[in-house]
Amino acid sequence: MILVTGGTGFVGGHVVHELRGRDLPVRCLVRDVRKASKLASWGCELAEGDVTDAGSLRRAAAGAETVVHLVAIRQGRKEQFERVMVQGTRDLLAAAGDAGARRFVHMSALGTSEATKDLVPYFRAKWETEGLVRESRIPSVIFRPSFVFGPDGGILPTFLKLAKLTPVTPIIGSGRQRIQPIWADDLARYFAEAVARDDVAGRTFELGGPDVVTWNEFWDRLKRVRGLRRPSLHVPVGLMRVNALLTERLPGNIPLTRDLLKMLEHGDNVVTDDDAAVRAFELRLLALDDQLRRA
Asked: Which of 62, 103, 111, 259 could form a disulfide with 66 if both were Cys (CB 3.0 to 4.6 A apart)?
């Protein structure tokens, strides 16, 4: 049995679908089983609970040989990052260990490092959870994906709306920072492979797609592929920071926050480990232009 946390999320849906497509047994931790009908229709077992409830984690982990941990938050107070991500991972590892799990596959984020751990609470939480996973007695695989693109969630649909609906496409800062987006289905295949392969246990992999582009190049390619002729305008980071200060006060999942701006300012969001994941897993990855077409 494979226990998946975060299965109702954007990335989680793709990971669970890939696992079930390989006819692997999956149990999903969900906060409300009534809102997980898609997972149930795929043949998943549903375990009601939450990563902040250690008791529900123990019940969900019972009998699980593998745990795929995808839960994270992108915005919130420091104590929320500590409670949801750090303590949640700590409790999940304890539950998985007590259940006799033999593999723990953890989703971190590209850019997570000792050098960035104090940049924003998100990176701090990712760095600490990576440490917890490595220190656990359970053989583990840690993935650090770049921007994850897909048609059904993540940031790409927002980019598409901006390119299509706004008369001018705003690009933050100089637009010269580089990114390496990975398609959600490709990311899901990495997770599915890591569940069973002993040769990748104990390793941390940075994950990106086959194309590295600057933000300027990305917007040019997006508009070209989608047949759009909108001009672009570079917006100073300071102005975007003022905008983020206002939008952060709105309810819901805000696409632009001051912490996200800090991460964008910090530098490139690209793989730095010489394509270790590509060499280890040998997966064919979807090119960026094809990602944009499929969106």
From this structure: 103
In angstroms, how far is CA 42 from the centroid of its own chain? 22
**AA letter at 73:** I
Strands laid side by side in the 203-207 sheet: 45-48, 26-30, 2-5, 66-69, 103-107, 140-145, 203-207
Q: Which amino acid type is present at position 276?
A: A
pLDDT higher than 70, residue 250: no
CA distance 100 to 103: 9
Predicted confidence (pLDDT) per residue in 158-213, tens digit: 889 888 888 999 898 899 999 999 999 999 999 999 998 999 999 999 999 999 99
Beta bridge partner(s), residue 69: 5, 106
- Residue 147 is classified by DSSP as P
CA angle 162, 165, 166 (to 5 degrees): 70
The pTM of this model reads 0.93
214 DSSP β-pair partners: 178
Check: CB of residue 143 under 8 Å from CB of residue 207.
Answer: yes
Query: Phi, psi at residue 265, to the nearest 5°?
Result: -70, -30
